[in-house]
Amino acid sequence: MVTIRAEILSDVPAREALLNAAFGVQRFRKTSEKLRRGRLPAEGLAFSAVDARGTLIGTVRLWNIIAGSAGQAVLLGPLAVDCKAQGQGLGAALMAHALAEAKRLGHAAVLLVGDASYYSRFGFSEGHTGSLQFPGPVERARFLGLELVKGAFDGAEGLITASGRVLEAAKKVA
To answer: Under a CB-based contact definition with an 8 Å cutoff, are residues 151 and 114 in contact?
Structure first.
């Protein structure tokens, strides 16, 4: 039995270990990580999947951003599932849960950088991101968007920037 629930503070070390196993430490050099650095996930949009013993086996977070002229949006990622739990639909369940919650909370648009072959089944497409720009290098074919509200990306152009809650530790350094 797997439960998807809101991420809790005690999940964070296991989450970081899972992300390191899935993506390696080079994940910190990705442009999308620059948008997350020093920020907290969007309120109510950080999720953990745990097995019957309470062991974290999956994770996904969404982050507040400004999507150029489209305005407020959320950036999804990273999404990861423990290698022992892959192929069982857990990634899809995490995605469906995260997107439903984002919509319920009033978010109109979601962006991510990922494999179109995987994310297109959830409605993500490159068509929504054509005139938007990431603040660093990104493969255009992997820069995808999803409208939770029809027309959210109509005419959208400009730079993606971070917004939302700043980590207290980051405030002290700045």
So the answer is: no
How far apart, in whole angstroms, are the C-alpha atoms of residue 93 and residue 80?
12
Cα–Cα separations (whole angstroms), residue 14 to 36, 108, 138, 164, 172: 18, 30, 28, 24, 26
- Report residue 69: phi and psi, to 5°: -70, -15
Alpha-helical segments (H) within 50-126 = 90-104, 116-119
Domains within the chain, CATH numbers bracketed = 3-173 (3.40.630.30)
Q: What percent of the chain has pLDDT over 70?
A: 97
| H or E, element range at 162 | strand 158-162
Nearest to 66 by CA among 167, 174, 158: 158
- Give, in degrees to the nearest 5, the angle at Cα 138 between 136 and 143: 125
pLDDT digits over 82-118, tens only? Answer: 999 999 999 999 999 999 999 999 999 999 999 999 9
